[in-house]
Write a structure and sequence with these properties.
The complex is a heterodimer of chains A (560) and B (257).
Chain A: E1 2-10, E2 18-24, E3 30-35, H1 41-48, H2 51-54, E4 58-66, E5 69-70, H3 76-79, E6 83-86, H4 99-109, H5 114-127, H6 143-155, E7 161-165, H7 173-188, E8 192-196, H8 200-204, E9 208-213, E10 216-222, H9 223-227, H10 230-235, H11 242-249, H12 259-270, E11 292-301, E12 311-319, E13 323-327, H13 334-341, E14 349-354, E15 357-358, H14 364-370, E16 371-374, H15 387-397, H16 402-416, H17 431-443, E17 449-453, H18 461-476, E18 480-484, H19 488-494, E19 497-502, E20 505-511, H20 512-516, H21 519-524, H22 531-539, H23 546-559
Parallel strand pairs in A: 3-8, 3-9, 6-7, 7-8, 13-18, 13-19, 16-17, 17-18
Antiparallel strand pairs in A: 1-2, 1-4, 4-5, 9-10, 11-12, 11-14, 14-15, 19-20
Chain B: H1 12-15, H2 18-34, H3 38-54, H4 58-63, H5 65-82, E1 88-92, E2 95-98, H6 99-125, H7 128-137, H8 142-170, H9 181-187, H10 189-212, H11 231-254
Antiparallel strand pairs in B: 1-2
Helix pairs in contact in B: 2-6, 2-11, 3-6, 5-6, 7-8, 8-10
Classes of the chains: A alpha/beta (560), B mainly alpha (257).
C-alpha cells in the first residue's frame, strides 16, 4: 500500500482533512496511526478502503496504490474482501441475529460455497476467540466480544490488508485486553495491519508509528523510537507512556524498559525516604465530618427474573465534596448503581435516600437539581438546534423565569468554554464539544451531585484533560462528583475514593491508593494500575502522576 | 435487557423450512382476518396459543402482555361505543351502545389480538436471516429482501436508544407525563430528535460496513444456512392452507357479523 501526496477536502469543508500524506505499508507490517481528534485519522482510513471517494464526496488528490494497483475509479466493492475495515462503532457494523450469521454475511455476498463458508466462519471465530458463541445473538455480547466479532466478520474474507479504526476506544479494560490480544495474534499470523489507536500499548506491538496532525504526517518512525519520545505523543494528543515521560523528565539518557528498572533508578535518587514523606503525594479522601448527601442501603436489582442480579446488596454513603470513581468492567453494575442513585431506576430491594428522604418520593424537578446525571453518549440527549437552547432546556423544565434561565445558561456555557458557540447547531460540534455541551446542560440545573458516565470516552488526550480540568474546577467549587470510568490514569490522578463493583457486588470502597495496592481486586476488575503508580508503590511513595514523582525527585535532589 | 423477539431454541416450529413459515404465517393472517365473530376467532386463537407453546414463545406473550391487552381492550372499547347499533341500550351523541356493537367489537378485538399473536409466533421462531432467505427463495431480489427485513434488525437498537434518551431527558427535569394528551405527544420531540439523528448516523456507518462486506457485488449469493424439506414441512404447509381454507369457507357460509 502506497500513498503519495494524498490530500482530501470534504465537500462543503473549508479546510482539507488530509494534506499531502505520504505513507507506505509493506506486506506483513503493522502500522499504528495516532493523532488528535480531527487530525485526519478516520479520513485516512476511509481513503485506504475507498470509502473515500466512493461514498464521501469531496476533492481527492495524489497517488494511491492499494495492493499493488493504482487507484483511479475503483470503489469499495472492488476491494471488498481484499481490504477489510473495522470501524470504531461496532454496534453499527453488526446487523445479524447470530454470531455465525454475522461472520457468514460477507461470504454469502461473495457466493462462497456453504462447506467452505462453514470452515472459514469457524476459522475466523477461532482466531478472535469466539468459538462456542456461534448461536449467540450479537446484541447480548459484551463490547469487547462485539468488536472481536466485527473483526472476525472481516477476517472471514481473508483480507490482504486489515484496517482498524480505533478498535478499543469504546471498550472496558477487559474488552481492550481481548481486542489487543486478537491484534497480537493477527500480527503473529503475519497479517498486514493498519491500526488507528489512542493507546500507546498498541504501539508497543507495531513495527512503525505514524503521527498525524492537522491532516499531515508529522512523523513516521519505528515503534521503539516513538515509544521513547513522549513529545511526539503529546503533539498528537495521545497520552505518552509513563516511563518515557519519567525518563524525559528526569533527564535519563538511557531508555527504561520496565517499571522495575525505573524503580531501581528512582530509589537511588529518593533515598533515604523519610516516614512523613511516604504519603505526601496523595491527599486522603477523608470525608468524615462532611454532611451525608446520599445513602444507598442494601440495593438489589434484577432486570429479568432469571438473570443474575445487576446489583446485589450494595450499600454506599456519599458526603458533600467527595470525588468518587465507580469502577468495574461492563455489566458489573456501575451504571445501574448510578441510575439508582438519582432515582432513574427503582431497585428491587433496598432504598436510596437523599438527605434522609427516599429519593423516589422527591418530585422529578427537585431530583434533577439534587443529582445530575451526564449520560455516556451525549447524542442521547442533544436535540435542540442551538447550543443555547440545548442548555436552556433543563432550567426551563424547572419553571425558572427567562431571565434566570439566561443567567444560568451563560454561566454553564462559560464554565465549559462554549459561550462563543451559543448560536451554533450542536450537530456540528466535535464529540469533545458535544460532551462538554452535555455537561453544561446538566450544570445549568446547578445540581449538588454530578454523576458522569464515562465522560472521556472517545476524546483525545487533550480533550480528556480539558474535560477533567472542568470537572475538577466544579469539584473545587464544592460540587460532589461521582465518575464512572474505565481509564486508570484518570482514577489515579483525580479520584480520592473508589468504589469497585464486580457482577453487581461491591468489592471495594475506600481510598484510591489502597485499591491500587490490592492486586487481587485489580485483577478481578482487569484494571491495569498506571505504570507510574506501580513505580511509586515499588519505591514506597504514593504518587498520582509522573509530574508529581519528577517534582518529588527534584526536591529530594535539592535537599541533598 | 433483551430486546429481540427471536427465541433461541430448536423446536419443531423453529426447524420448519422458512418458506413454509412465511406461507404458513400468511395463511394464519388470512384466517385471523376472515374470522368475523368471536366464535370463529376463539378456536383460531387456541391454535395459535398451542403453537406459541410448541415454539417456546409463551415467555414472549408474557413480555408483550400489556401490549396485547391494550390492543384488545382499546379495540373493544372504541368499537362498542362508536358502532352504530340498530337497537342501542344507551345513546348519547355519537355513542350508541348496543348488542350488535358489543358483538362486533368483541370480534374485532379478538381478530386484531390474534393477528398480533400470529406475528409474535413468527418472530419468535424465525430468524431475520431466515425471513430474508425465504423472501429470496420466493423470488424477491437479495438486496430488496435485506432491506425489507432491515426494520426487524434495527427496531431493537432504536428501542434501546429511545429508552436511554427518555432517561437522559428525565435527568434534566423533563416530565413526560405533564399536560393533556396533545402536549404529551409534543413532549416526545426531545426523544424523537436524538433517536432520529442517531439512526441517520448509524445508517451511514452501516452502509459503509455493508459495502466493505461486498453487499454491492453483482454476482450470485449463497446462503450459510441450508434448508431441507421434510415431512414436517409438508404437514405444516398443508395444515396452514387447510386452516386458511376452512376459515374462509366458515366466514363465507356461516356469515361473519
Amino acid at each position: 500500500m502506497y500513498l503519495r501526496g494524498v490530500s482530501f477536502t470534504y465537500a462543503g469543508g473549508a479546510l482539507p482533512a488530509l494534506r499531502g500524506v505520504d505513507l507506505v505499508v509493506r506486506r506483513g507490517e503493522m502500522v499504528v496511526v495516532m493523532g488528535a481528534s480531527r487530525a485526519g485519522k478516520s479520513t485516512l482510513v476511509k481513503v485506504l478502503n475507498r470509502t473515500i471517494p466512493s461514498f464521501q464526496p469531496g476533492s481527492l488528490q495524489g497517488e494511491i496504490w492499494l495492493l499493488g494497483q493504482r487507484c483511479e475509479q475503483e470503489t469499495v466493492a472492488d476491494f471488498a474482501g481484499r481490504i477489510g475495515l473495522v470501524a470504531q462503532d461496532f454496534e453499527a457494523q453488526l446487523f445479524s441475529t447470530s454470531v455465525e450469521c454475522e461472520v457468514a454475511f460477507a461470504l454469502e455476498q461473495f457466493g462462497v460455497s456453504p462447506p467452505e463458508m462453514r470452515q472459514r466462519v469457524h476459522a475466523a471465530l477461532r482466531s478472535v476467540g469466539l468459538e462456542g458463541f456461534e448461536e449467540r445473538d450479537p446484541a447480548t455480547l459484551s463490547g469487547g466480544e462485539k468488536q472481536r466479532l466485527a473483526i472476525a466478520a472481516m477476517l472471514a474474507l481473508e483480507p490482504e490488508l486489515l484496517v482498524l479504526d480505533e478498535p478499543t476506544t469504546d471498550l472496558d479494560p477487559l474488552g481492550k485486553e481481548e481486542v489487543l490480544a486478537v491484534l497480537a495474534g493477527l500480527r503473529r499470523e503475519g497479517r498486514t495491519l493498519v491500526v488507528v489507536e489512542h493507546e500507546t500499548i498498541a504501539a508497543e506491538m507495531a513495527d512503525r508509528v505514524v503521527f498525524l496532525a492537522e491532516g499531515r504526517v508529522l512523523a513516521d518512525m519505528p515503534a521503539q523510537a516513538a515509544l521513547r519520545s513522549p513529545e511526539w505523543f503529546r503533539c498528537c494528543a495521545v497520552r505518552p507512556p509513563d516511563l518515557a515521560v519519567l525518563a524525559h523528565g528526569l533527564g535519563w539518557a538511557e531508555p527504561v524498559r520496565s517499571v522495575e528498572q525505573a524503580a531501581a533508578r528512582v530509589r537511588e535518587r529518593l533515598m533515604p525516604v523519610q516516614k512523613d514523606d511516604r504519603a505526601a503525594g496523595q491527599q486522603q479522601g477523608e470525608a468524615s465530618g462532611h454532611d451525608v448527601l446520599l445513602v444507598a442501603e442494601k440495593l438489589s436489582l434484577r432486570y429479568e427474573a432469571h438473570a443474575p442480579p445487576a446489583l446485589a446488596n450494595v450499600s454506599l454513603t456519599i458526603r458533600t465534596g467527595e470525588f468518587l470513581a465507580l469502577l468495574g468492567h461492563n455489566g458489573s453494575g456501575k451504571t445501574t448503581l448510578a441510575k439508582c442513585l438519582n432515582g432513574l431506576l427503582r431497585p428491587s430491594d433496598g432504598e436510596v435516600r437523599w438527605k434522609g428522604v427516599p429519593i423516589l418520593s422527591i418530585p422529578l424537578a427537585e431530583r434533577a437539581v439534587a443529582v445530575g446525571y451526564v449520560f455516556q453518549n451525549p447524542d442521547h440527549q442533544i436535540f435542540a438546534d442551538r447550543v443555547w437552547d440545548e442548555v436552556a432546556f433543563g432550567p426551563r423544565n424547572l419553571g425558572l423565569s427567562e431571565q434566570a434561565v439566561a443567567e444560568r445558561v451563560r454561566q454553564a456555557l462559560g464554565a465549559v468554554g462554549l459561550l462563543e458557540r451559543c448560536d451554533d447547531d450542536p450537530f456540528w460540534l466535535t464529540k469533545g464539544e458535544r460532551q462538554r455541551l452535555a455537561v453544561a446542560s446538566l450544570l445549568a440545573l446547578e445540581p449538588q451531585v454530578l454523576i458522569l458516565d464515562e465522560p472521556t470516552t472517545g476524546l483525545d488526550y487533550n480533550e480528556q484533560r480539558q474535560t477533567m480540568e472542568l470537572i475538577c474546577r466544579l469539584h473545587r467549587q464544592g460540587m460532589t462528583v461521582i465518575m464512572i470510568t474505565h481509564t486508570a490514569w484518570l482514577v489515579a490522578e483525580y479520584a480520592e475514593r473508589v468504589v469497585l463493583l464486580h457482577r453487581g457486588e461491591l468489592l471495594f470502597d475506600g481510598p484510591t491508593h489502597e485499591l491500587f495496592a490490592r492486586d487481587d481486586l485489580m485483577n478481578a476488575a482487569r484494571f491495569r494500575v498506571p505504570d507510574i503508580v506501580r513505580l511509586g508503590q515499588r519505591c514506597g511513595v504514593r504518587v498520582r502522576s509522573v509530574e508529581e514523582l519528577v517534582r518529588m525527585v527534584g526536591r529530594r535532589s535539592e535537599d541533598r | 435487557m433483551k430486546l429481540s423477539i427471536y427465541v433461541v431454541a430448536n423446536t419443531p416450529l423453529h426447524r420448519l423450512h422458512p418458506v413454509v413459515k412465511v406461507v404458513g404465517i400468511f395463511c394464519f393472517f388470512v384466517a385471523a382476518f376472515t374470522a368475523g365473530s368471536p366464535i370463529q376467532s376463539l378456536p383460531l386463537a387456541a391454535v395459535v396459543g398451542a403453537l406459541l407453546w410448541l415454539g417456546g414463545a409463551l415467555a414472549n406473550v408474557w413480555r408483550f402482555r400489556w401490549f396485547l391487552a391494550l390492543v384488545f381492550f382499546m379495540t373493544f372499547l372504541v368499537w362498542s361505543l362508536f358502532f352504530h347499533s340498530e337497537a342501542p341500550w344507551f345513546a348519547w351523541g355519537p355513542v350508541r351502545l348496543g348488542y350488535d356493537g358489543v358483538r362486533f367489537a368483541l370480534a374485532t378485538a379478538c381478530r386484531l389480538t390474534t393477528f398480533f399473536a400470529v406475528g409474535l409466533l413468527f418472530l419468535s421462531t424465525t430468524r431475520v436471516e431466515e425471513f430474508a432467505d425465504a423472501l429470496g427463495m420466493i423470488g424477491v431480489p437479495a438486496k430488496l429482501g435485506f432491506v425489507m427485513t432491515l426494520a426487524f434488525r434495527l427496531v431493537p437498537a432504536f428501542v434501546d436508544a429511545a429508552l436511554s434518551v427518555v432517561q437522559a431527558q428525565r435527568c434534566r427535569g423533563f416530565d413526560f407525563d405533564r399536560g393533556n394528551w396533545l402536549e404529551r405527544v409534543r413532549h416526545y420531540l426531545p426523544v424523537i430528535v436524538p433517536v432520529f439523528i442517531g439512526a441517520l448516523r448509524r445508517a451511514d456507518l452501516m452502509a459503509m460496513a455493508l459495502e466493505a462486506r461486498g453487499f454491492q457485488l453483482p454476482g450470485p449469493r449463497t446462503s450459510y444456512r441450508t434448508y431441507a424439506w421434510g415431512w414436517g414441512d409438508a404437514i405444516a404447509l398443508v395444515g396452514s392452507v387447510m386452516l386458511a381454507g376452512t376459515w374462509l369457507l366458515w366466514a363465507r357460509f356461516a356469515g361473519g357479523n
